[in-house]
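Homework help board

Subject: predicted structure for assignment chain

Our instructor gave us this sequence and asked us to write out the predicted structure in token form, then describe one feature. I got the tokens but I'm not sure how to describe them. Can anyone check?
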Amino acid sequence: MVSNKDNLKHPVIGITMGDPLGIGPEVVVRALQQADTLGEARFLIYGSNELLNLAADRIGFKPNWSRIPHDSSRRDQKIDDRVVVLDYEQPEILRREEAGPSPVGGRLSYDFVEHAIADALLPADSTRHLDAIVTAPISKQAWSMVGSRFPGHTELIAHRTRAKRHTMLFRSKKLTVALATAHVPLMDLRNTLTIGKVFDPIDVGHRFLTDLGIESPRIAVCGLNPHAGENGLLGDEDLRLIAPAIDMARNTGIDVHGPFPADTLFISAARGEWDLVVAMYHDQGLIPVKLLGWQDAVNVTVGTPLIRTSPDHGTAYDIARRYKADPSSMIHAVQLACKLATRRLLTNQDA
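My token output:
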């Protein structure tokens, strides 16, 4: 008897190379070097074939991909190769020796992502359709140099998909953390945080975990102020904004608790008492994630119709082209994208 899983088509995963002057080319190649651990999927790499070949040569890896110019009409034909580089030729990048934010790096890395998003939004039967996107790191400064108004991947993807409710979530072996606010200056937080901003990561984070097969996720929510406000003595946001959002989520059937003081909550979460922690701002959530899960943490955009994952680190210009980067987070990002895409394809097939 043949199961639905046996008939399931392999997902197509788009991988954007990130800033060409950062460690993106290297970690992409090192991930492809581990192709046998990445699951049954096909990969389209949006990037520079020459930089990828250079990285492969420096780490002693024989390229396992074919090349197609990104604007070639061959893109509209069925591609059977397991790994294909959609090549964006840019000689100026190859001549540039100093790593750092640049207009040419910003333009290329932005185009990689825009084109991958466009392909992911195509109908499922299109030859260019992607089932998930994995994004190597970009420089927000480089994007701003070319006029981008988006501070990062999450905001761009949310805008292109018209997703009104979305959040950044970080998945690691010890912690899973969703953010109520992300790329917001700390001093602006008081005017940014709302009941809805707290409710959304609880709700979409719960849905993400159930999509992974966790039937009844246990969710804890951080307070904003020290000691979660001490009943209003150290700030009223915990009572005025966070507690009502938790009540709203409970009324929908979500098993959520809090707000808890953040300095102790992550201890119990790391022990496995919670499936998800919702943090109020970027560093509140990211410091424990990177401390406990630096090598395996994955950034996931949740709440949009697209599956998108990314390593939890930046461009690392300081070690770019030294070919000593740790690819662990990138490998985990690709593995998670494959898992999520396969589960979605199976769910759609069974529907």
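Reply (TA_rk): Your tokens look well-formed. For the description, you could write something like this. The first helix runs from residue 4 to 7. That's the kind of observation they're looking for.
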